[in-house]
Structures are given as C-alpha cells and as structure tokens.
Specification:
The chain contains twelve helices and six strands. The chain is α+β, with helices and mostly antiparallel strands. The protein has two domains: 77 residues, Leucine-rich Repeat Variant (Alpha Horseshoe), CATH 1.25.10; 195 residues, no CATH class. The strands form two sheets. It has a four-stranded antiparallel β-sheet. A two-stranded parallel sheet has the order 1-2. Helix 6 packs across helix 9.
C-alpha cells in the first residue's frame, strides 16, 4: 500500500467513530471495497482502542471483508472444477474460523493416503481395495461417526473432525471420497436423503445401468451396500426412491449438503445470523 493509500485508510478508520450513520455506512462500504489489505490495520486499531463501540464496528467490517474473500475463494474452487473436496470443506470451516490453515489438514490426509497406497495393488478387486481403505481409516486412524446431536456445528467443520476423528456422515464420506480421488479410485458421493453414502463406479460394469458395483456407508466403517438396501432405507423413511438418489453426485453437491447441514446446526443452536450468512456462501449467481 502506497502513502496515499495508507493516508486514506487512516482517515477511514478514524471516521468509523463518526456518530452519523450515513457517514459510517459510506466509510464501511469503502473499507469493504478495499478488501483484504485493510484487515491487519483494522485489527491493530481494534487492539489499541478502548472504545467498545468502535471495536464492534471494526469487527463487523472485518467479518464482512473476510466473508467476501471466502465467497470468492468458494466460487473459484467451484468454477475450476472443485476437485479437492478437502479444500472445499476447509473453505466451509473458514466461515467459523477465518484464520484456519489448510496445510495441517492436507498433511494429515496425505499421511493416511500414503498408508493406504502402500497396501494397494492392481491385483486387488474393488471390494478388497475398499477393505484396505476401511482398515486404515477406521481401524488404524479410528475415524467414526459421532454420537453427538445432529445439530452440533462441530460435526460439519473439517478441522474438528480431523482433530477428534468423529464426524457427521457427510464429512466422513467427504474424507473417504477425497482419499479415493488421491488414490485414483472411482469412488464418488451419493446424495441419499437422511444419510450420505458413496458408490464404487466402474464404467465397464454392465449389470447396472448406472455402472455402480456397490455402495459404501462411510458412517458404518465403510460397509458395502447394494441398491436394495438403499431402497429399503428410503422405504422405511417413506421417501420416494427417485433415480438420482442412487447416482454419483458432484463435489459441489457434497459441499452444498455440508453447508445446508451446518446452516441447520447454527439455526438449532441459536445462531440465525450465521445460518443466514452461510446460505449465501454457495448461492449461485
């Protein structure tokens, strides 16, 4: 930032104390327009001021700048293919933790991937490959479904799940699918209502019109399922077994489901403002 920009920023920060709402709105909009470069100076002013009202105003400006930046990152992730599911989940978690670092999460998943890769070979059947993943993910690294209430926000935040090894079906499935991608295995998410499962897709498989060998339940230690079991599950819930419930979904579909679940959790735990903001994170333009 050059001297002119620095002087403008200082003037804008000083004007945040102006009691005139129109002046404040104008100043806030300009600071938000300046974007990420003003966050550190704003944080420094927050640290030295003794005025609670000014601190609150600074906090609101920083939150909006960070959210706008996060929205741009999510849009870019989606528009460039959304391949890395871990990164998509990381962006969702940044909504709650703006300073969250991706590298430790990536390093942890890479360690699990290496463990699995060492045991895989081309002679194994699809089911045997899945059993190898299950062994390392559930038996060695101890990932499992959480028994906390479904509206607990931590169940949908990737950093908490990677720290505690306990999570919701959608995040367990997301971790599983991302490991499979890094291992070049054709395992994809399936947007089944009231649960989240995966499928092992084989384009050469002719016995199923969707080319799906079998399904995988990530919240039941990777148990293999058939389509009959999925239909039975839907029948028990009195949900019509629509065709797309059994097909692979996109990575953006998975992230959208993660966001919807987190939004619901915020609503149920008394944070409607967070739920409202979160909704716009994946809102299509």
């Amino acid at each position: 930032m050059n001297e002119q920009g620095y002087n403008e920023l200082e003037a804008l920060i000083n004007l945040l104390e102006d009691p005139d709402d129109q002046v404040f709105d104008s100043v806030m909009n300009r600071l938000i327009e300046l974007g990420d470069d003003v966050v550190v100076p704003l944080e420094k002013r927050w640290e030295v001021t003794l005025k609670p009202e000014l601190q609150e105003r600074i906090e609101n400006v920083i939150k909006q700048i960070q959210f706008n930046s996060l929205k741009r990152q999510m849009d870019h992730w989606n528009q460039t293919g959304g391949k890395n599911l871990l990164y998509g989940a990381y962006l969702v978690a940044k909504f709650q933790y703006p300073d969250l670092d991706f590298d430790p999460l990536d390093a942890m998943l890479e360690k699990i991937r290496r463990d699995i890769w060492l045991e895989l070979n081309n002679e194994l059947t699809a089911l045997e490959k899945v059993k190898v993943i299950n062994y390392f993910l559930y038996d060695i690294h101890k990932f499992d479904k959480s028994f906390k209430k479904a509206h607990t926000p931590q169940l949908y935040l990737i950093n908490h799940v990677m720290d505690t090894y306990k999570g919701s079906p959608v995040l367990l499935g997301l971790i599983y699918a991302e490991l499979a991608r890094r291992l070049n295995l054709p395992i994809f998410g399936v947007n089944l209502p009231r649960n989240f499962v995966l499928c092992y897709y084989d384009k050469e498989y002719r016995e199923d019109p969707n080319r799906i060998l079998f399904y995988i339940n990530p919240s039941d230690k990777g148990a293999a399922l058939g389509v009959k079991e999925l239909k039975y599950f839907l029948n028990q819930l009195k949900i019509e077994p629509l065709d797309f419930y059994f097909k692979p979904c996109t990575n953006m579909n998975i992230i959208e489901r993660l966001v919807v679940n987190l939004q619901y959790a915020y609503e149920r735990t008394g944070h409607p403002d967070k739920a409202l903001s979160l909704r716009s994170l994946i809102k299509r333009s």
